[in-house]
Amino acid sequence: MASVETRQTVRAQAKFVRTSARKARLVAEHIRGRSVPEARAVLAFTTRDAARDIEKVLASAVANAESRPDLQWHGDELVVASVTVDEGPTLKRWRARARGRVARIKKRSCHITVLLAPAAQEGLAGGAGRGRAAKSVTDVAGAAEPKPTAAKRAAKPKSETTSEPSATASARAKRGRKEAKS
Percentage of residues in the chain with pLDDT exceeding 90? Predict the structure, then answer.
């Protein structure tokens, strides 16, 4: 029988935030999987307005983690386990347009949720690595070939170094024929 591991997390949520979920998700992608001090630094230097709202929710989640007596977590030792931005209700407003018509204005809102977990549980002790690590060439193809140095490239014959598409070669041939005729 498989053992089920229980992870303790602390969350904070802001509802009915007056920004679109699509814009807030762009900011949320930057802090997902990062440590709390690193996430705060990223949000402090992000110029989007949604960063201020997500920063408030992150600060609230850290305060929730530090104030719980049963956990006794320190804010700088936590990792942003997940950030979700869900759509909230849309306010429909109207604007007068030409010839007696109206145009709909959609004022969108969103719900922002931040989950924090200890760095040891997340497997990111010391901030080494993130959940979405980029695969290197060696991960994909096994052993990668080393890139040739400038001396090796110079030693190769001209035909090996330049691989022109056939369309380009035919275009040059046509140009040569036109020049020969004139």
Answer: 57
